[in-house]
Amino acid sequence: MPRREEIKKVLLIGSGPIIIGQACEFDYSGTQAIKALKEEGIEVILLNSNPATIMTDPDFAHRTYLEPITVEAAERIIQLEKPDSLLPTMGGQTALNLAKQLAEQGILAKYGVKLIGASLEAINKAEDRKLFKAAMEKIGLELPRAGIATTMEEARALVKDLGFPSIIRPSFTLGGTGGGVAFNQEQFEQLCAGGLAASPVHAVQIDESVLGWKEYELEVVRDSKDNCIIVCSIENLDPMGVHTGDSITVAPAQTLTDKEYERMRDASLAIMREIGVDTGGSNVQFGLNPKDGRMVVIEMNPRVSRSSALASKATGYPIAKIAAKLAIGYTLDELKNDITRDTPASFEPTIDYVVVKLPKFNFEKFPKSPRTLGTMMRSVGEVMAIGRTFRESYQKAFRSLEQGKHPIPTKAEAMKRPAAEREELLRVPTPERPWIVLEAFQLGMTVEQVQALTAMDPWFLRQLEAMVKELHEIEAKAPGGDDVGRGSSPLAKFSDAELKMHKSRGFSDGQIAQALGTTEKVVREERWKRNIRPVYKRVDTCAAEFEAFTPYLYSTYEEEDEAPPTDRKKIVILGSGPIRIGQGIEFDYCCVHAAFALREAGFETIMVNCNPETVSTDYDTSDRLYFEPLTMEDVLEIIHREKPLGVIVQFGGQTPLKLSKPLEAAGVPILGTTPDAIDQAEDRERFSKLVDRLRLRQPENGTARAPDEAHKTAESIGYPVMVRPSYVLGGRAMEVVYDRADLDRYMRESLMPSAENPVLIDRFLQSATEVDLDLVCDATGACIVGGVLEHVEEAGVHSGDAACVLPPHSLAPDVIERLKDIAISLSRELKVVGLMNVQFAVQGKAIYVLEVNPRASRTVPFIAKATGVALAKVAALCMAGKTLAEQGLTKDPEMHHYAVKESVFPFARFTNTDVILGPEMKSTGEVMGLDANVHAAFAKSTLATGSALPRGGTVFVSVKDDDKPGLVDLAKRLRTLGFTLCATGGTLEYLGRKGIPAERVNKVREGSPHIVDRMISKEIALVINTTAGKKEISDSYTIRREALTRGLSYFTTMEAARMGVGALEAQASGARSYTPIQDWLRK
To answer: Which pLDDT value is given to residue 1?
Structure first.
């Protein structure tokens, strides 16, 4: 049927900030959906709070509201924009939950707005555990034995029948939030209480244990004529019990029999029909008992999901785009496949390769949290690799993870671990288990022994065992003493066919070199001398049965090359690899903008990346996409093949920057700022000399390569000091150290210092305001300052975690101009071409340069949204030779509104972790608040993080001595707003001396009833808690953790508390205004 003509204006709801369980795959799906709707002449209104996304660019949707994703905001936008339809299936669980609230509160009916993509009935049947169970029973499909509980009493009654272990699954949450596996009553009580609190409908499903079963997913698309296709089957390498987002997954499924696959296929189609999903994509998850073949349905998502992005990238089938077209009335047989331009979208994809996805973890950021993996997702990102076999794609995926080690440990490394520890690490799933499995095979454990401990399918284990055996074959051909003496090649014992065979099975030059006792460079040069190089195959949805027009490529070591390079002018853009804390979606955003800008300028754009979640790896973002690891080996092969004018390393964060010097040494032209200039900024000793040469201030600093050197440096500077490794992103292992003992501990525990990578030691600037400044420069030395961001928290909180205000709200105008002058002088000294970020600390009128990053920073998308100047596009054109004047940019952008960036954190998923902020970055994403008033903008950003701003109640205040004078004004303002105060002894006494009444409450160590008891009893509305020193921080940990658990707003710095109280005053002053970003940029 043709598209529904009555649909003319659609409100699309995004997913909000990047969080664990809901990451940048929804920027990818939302971007596809917006493009699909605009192709049909439909006006698109977007609600999303995330400034780091492509979809929130002002030229994507017709009207873009960077506002909190709340019922209040959505209703007001519906009033203003009058859409006829709402599409909630592209924004993850956040969008689905909001659509459900809007429908059930009668708001959609009130304004005549129709849900498209999924009906309310379908959403409820899929997401409500009780309704889903009834639906499955109706069509004769089995689920794990289970029950629904809305109270702890109901939960206890259920577990008596189901027994332990039991699985707790909250309703209407994402990424398994609040869930887990309980092996005993104590764990059960804790998980159920948390699950009920996490569920927006206060319900949990308690399942019988299916631990150790095999887990599968099918990605399904259905239209209104009941055309239904399976896009992709996905199999988890880990058995049930590990969240699919934390598991290694493989597509297509490798161990299903034809009969089992057909059973799952038939069940998936029946589920789609019964739930009522008839205009889009869904994901259905199954468990299969390997002992008796019993199959159960785990769950289904009536929306585009994380797995949908993986399936799209694995097959080339654009699920989100097709789902958007189906939502407005088309059927699958009416839509063409973009890649073949011939087959209809109703053709099921066929693939003749294997795809492996590996999760990326950041447990090192949360060292006190247990590393055990369970049903609650905790990975922060993922990589994907494509190969002709499982073994090839598995090894390529491990190369993509950037772990700094090969997938197969050496025998010597394996022997360092005690056998009992190894068995425990095989039995209990952790991020290390993939290496431990290969370690076990290195030491001669059998497939049967490893399978008994891990419950992994024997087929996968046999493949992994074969990898280890093949490595032994390589090691057996290492040159002996006589060979070395004769000066023969380390590869002399390998025929061309043998070497090519090992490469075809995924062995990297580095792994082969380690096995032969030589260097990666030697192996690579010998391989090149023999002309053993990869060919490139297309991802074409049809296993080469039809011609493919989209150059979406992967490497393998075979004969036929399916996509020879063109002779056009071309530029290679190196992507940012897996999302991780410190290197998030912001860097992918910059890479995408570079591709857009350079394509418009007439260049053929070539993207290299390995992240399936991102817009950069969408098939139509660049002219050519190489889905490959970002390693020296893989990048050099692409450059040899494409022979570009140059390579951009500036936009993808540390991942491509680490390659810049070796690439340059290999003769590869690097566009923009030179690798030497980048090194000058990254190398602390060279950077200090540069700052001194320009007669600028910097905190006293030094470097240390050993503990004795660290002691001398710290004592000469004076404690407290800021210590960190060199060449890291996201403040990795950065810490404020207060004394010698603290420094000794840091030197023991930190990344090992070396001559090339010393530990950096700076004087810690207390009571200073930190500032970020981003600018763009061209090859003539002309610069524009994109924005100056004032941090809300004082110096000492990582810039990625700090709330920021643009333009500065408290800095003097002369200070701002001096900051700009200093930044421009630094850029000219470094001869920057492209982007540069400078971080400053301001103490009164004194300005200290903290660091310079001559590359894209995570603040670039935020500034671009706030000012309307697409800094990454501008920088890409500068690198390609265009001047700023030629681009019409001769002055800094001006703003007539405030933009506030606030961060979101994954603390709830990591137990035993303090929420207090410091110099090491912990946030996973960010939100934006826009308003003419800075405090109103801050209020919006706070709401957008999911924190509630109370309108009354009791505020708990307990602050360190230095902060007590500043608390007086805040306490008076809170009382004026109608809040009452309670405080611990010292703070209470100080407020009493100032004539401010407050109620006394005990500290936790003073015994019950204490402050945490009051919080548990829901008597506290807001927490202001600042501390100094390790003991005080430790003593007040439970207060901050309870605030997190209870969903209370809390402030751990006085600067944030001041902004927070201002936000409460702005909230009390009247209704919030909601304005699309396009209107802000026109003012």
So the answer is: 57
